[in-house]
Design brief:
This protein has helices spanning 7-17, 24-31, 35-49, 57-80, 88-92. It has 102 residues and is an all-alpha fold. The chain has a domain at 7-74: Arc Repressor Mutant, subunit A (Orthogonal Bundle), CATH 1.10.10.
Length: 102
């Protein structure tokens, strides 16, 4: 996976596509990025500018932060509780006292 491009690079690339008569495919090729990548940046810009429905960049960052905090909280609560068995078979009966199968 290629390294992420700087934010200013992305903004300028999107601006180039907004020029009348500009070809997304040509601009993407000239910049050394995929057409799909450029179209994704355009869609994100449309959401941020209010031209399209969806989560803005700031809303996405806020939501990501909440999810990270929630995951960390769950991890801490799990790791501090009594260890749970991973398999019923291991805790049910000692190895030599296991019930006979059919």
């Amino acid at each position: 996976m290629p390294a992420p491009k700087p934010l200013e690079f992305r903004r300028r690339a999107v601006e180039l596509t907004r020029v009348p008569g500009a070809s997304v495919a040509t601009i993407a090729k000239d910049l050394g990025i995929s057409e799909t990548c450029l179209r994704r940046w355009m869609a994100k810009d449309d959401v941020d500018a209010g031209r399209r429905e969806g989560l803005t960049s700031s809303e996405h960052e806020e939501r990501s932060g909440c999810e990270e905090r929630t995951a960390a909280r769950r991890w801490r609560s799990r790791s501090s509780s009594v260890p749970r068995p991973t398999s019923r078979r291991r805790t049910c009966c000692p190895q030599n006292e296991r019930p006979a199968g059919p």
